[in-house]
Amino acid sequence: MLKKEYKAILFDLDGTLLPMDMKKFTEGYFMDLYSAVNMPEIAIKDFTEAIWQGTYAMMKNDGSKTNREVFWEFFGQKMGYDKKQTEEMDAKCLSFYSHEFVAAKRFCMDNPLAKQAVEIAKTKADKVILATNAIFPMAGHRTRLGWLGLKEEDFDYVTCYEDEYFCKPNPKYFEAIMNKMGLEPQDCLMIGNDEREDMLCASTVGLDAFLITDTMIPYKEQPWNGDKGSFTDMLSMLEGLKDR
Predict the structure, then answer these.
(1) Distances from the Cα of 7 to the Cαs of 23, 118, 127, 161, in angstroms?
(2) Which domain holds residue 227?
(3) Less Cβ crowding at N or C end of the chain, within 10 Å?
(4) What angle do CA 151, 153, 157 make, to 5 degrees?
(5) Domain match, 89 and 120 both
(6) How far is the CA of 167 from the CAs of 1, 152, 176, in angstroms?
(7) What angle separates helix 83-98 from helix 138-146, to the nearest 10 degrees?
(8) Do 61 and 12 belong to one domain?
(9) How many domains does the chain have?
């Protein structure tokens, strides 16, 4: 049962504010990224495998390094790169997320209600946080937010791989947000579409959670039995919260 008042409202991005078929989006933009880095000596299969395995390495991060450091350390080792080559690839990818990544909008669906959801949340809570998984650079977040008519400054905090030391579904990801923002979990509401990464992960720490069912990613081992509904249902839920 959700409360009527929260000090912070957290939103997931991919599949929540930004509806998409995650598989189609990932496969599509990986092809764009491969073309952008322009390294024909690397087979696309090896390139994408290194990215996936680097992503999994971030998800296992023990907190000793930032997610960015973990990813590029793994990627460089996987590809047999020295430090300079790894840094050059990092720079190429960052340029991609700042420029060419905008074309990946074709793999997503429009959501004219996303901006409205964030605007409502600002009237209901002291802080509105973009709790998108910290596996992208901030440049990638800015680009995807732009597709929704939103920007980084619309949020009090945005997690990204440059600044975070954990990823969903590690509960320490949410614990870190609580610590950084001076929040208590029981005063926060997480809104997401992934039963494991958003619902289970956040609720394990003590946050309330609302599952968006339009593009839900199920978790068969532990289905979400808490509050849920469509994006429009979520808007109605937000409207019913007490004003800040």
Answers:
(1) 34, 14, 6, 25
(2) 8-20+109-239
(3) N
(4) 110
(5) no
(6) 26, 19, 10
(7) 10
(8) no
(9) 2
β partners of residue 33: none
pLDDT tens for 156-182 read: 999 999 999 999 999 999 999 999 999
Residue 50 maps to a domain: yes
The 10s digit of each residue's pLDDT in 135-146 is 999 999 999 999
- CA-to-CA distance for 89 and 214, rounded, in angstroms? 36
pTM of the model: 0.96
Positive or negative torsion for Cα 56, 83, 35, 19: positive
Task: Give Cβ neighbours of residue 76 (< 8 Å, ≥ 6 apart).
Answer: 82, 83, 85, 86, 89
Specify the amino acid at residue 87. E
1 falls within a domain: no
How would you classify the pairing of strands 127-130 and 8-11? parallel
Sign of CA pseudo-dihedral 206, 212, 213, 217 = negative
- Could you tell me where the DSSP H helices lie in the chain? 22-37, 44-59, 67-79, 83-98, 114-124, 138-146, 172-181, 201-205, 231-239
Token pair listed for 97: 């997320």
Residue 244 lies in a domain: no
CA separation for the pair 100, 139 (Å, rounded): 11
Rg (Cα) of the chain, in Å, rounded? 18
Tokens of 54: 């680097």
Instruction: Identify the helix (H) or strand (E) that includes residue 192.
Output: strand 188-192
